[in-house]
Amino acid sequence: MKDDVFQVFLAGVLGAVRVQKTLLYIVTSRVTAVRTIQCFTLNGVIFLGSIAVFDFLLKPGIFLIGKWMRIIHSEGFRRFDYRQDDYVNSDSELLNDYFKSVEGGIDHLTSLIFTFAWLVPMYALSFILNTVWYRDIAEQVFRQEKGRLRGNESIAAILRDEIYRLLLMAWSSILSFLLSIVPYFGTFSCLFYTSWIYAFYCYDYKWTMQGWSFEKRLGFFQDHWVYMLGFGMPYCDNR
Q1: Residues 130-174: tens digit of each pLDDT
Q2: For the residues of 204-222, what is the DSSP string, one character each?
Q3: What is the pTM of this model?
Q4: What does the alpha-carbon distance between residue 234 and residue 146 come to, in Å, rounded to a whole number?
Q5: 2-16 vs 186-209: helix axis angle to the nearest 10?
Q6: Measured between alpha carbons, how far is 157 from 203 in angstroms, rounded to an integer?
Q7: Which entry of 47, 62, 229, 236 is 20 to 30 Å from 89 by CA?
């Protein structure tokens, strides 16, 4: 019994990391290739790249400028009061404390500006574009494997499905965070729950295009919960 459960779990893991099959879809379909490149460029290059530039270039540059200003002011202060060593030492410490507080305020301010002026709008834009591109990829792959779509392809049905996925991921993120802060078993609970959510999100595109009802999708997921746990595990960040 334990061996069977482990084999099913392992099958799920291997099913999630079939890179060769993904590459085959990309090579044989122009739509899939273009949408994959667009997703990688938006999420991996622009979005994550901007965070890396801010963390490793802009913030260190701002602190370097602040450090130079502190040195310049300190040297000028020493030259002006070179005969009063006691007072110079005392006032130099106050000056250093002042610059440290200013640096802390600048760090907090620049982080807020970067978050609300760039990250939040960029995340909203990427979410909208990813929603469209993910569905295009899913439709193209489904047509290659199964042929014609069996689900409802109307604008209202597509909009309903995407709103449902948005609410699902929003609720899942909140619950995942709450589980992660529970002492002792919270980390493992969060890992298992997040794995199932990722697996459900991935398979939900296929089930929707097959015309499955929500009850049928949920029932299938519950019947194959071990496989789904393994399938979603590689996508987790192991929080």
Answers
A1: 888 998 999 999 988 887 777 666 677 777 777 877 787 778 878
A2: HHHHHHTT--HHHHHHHHH
A3: 0.74
A4: 26
A5: 60
A6: 18
A7: 62
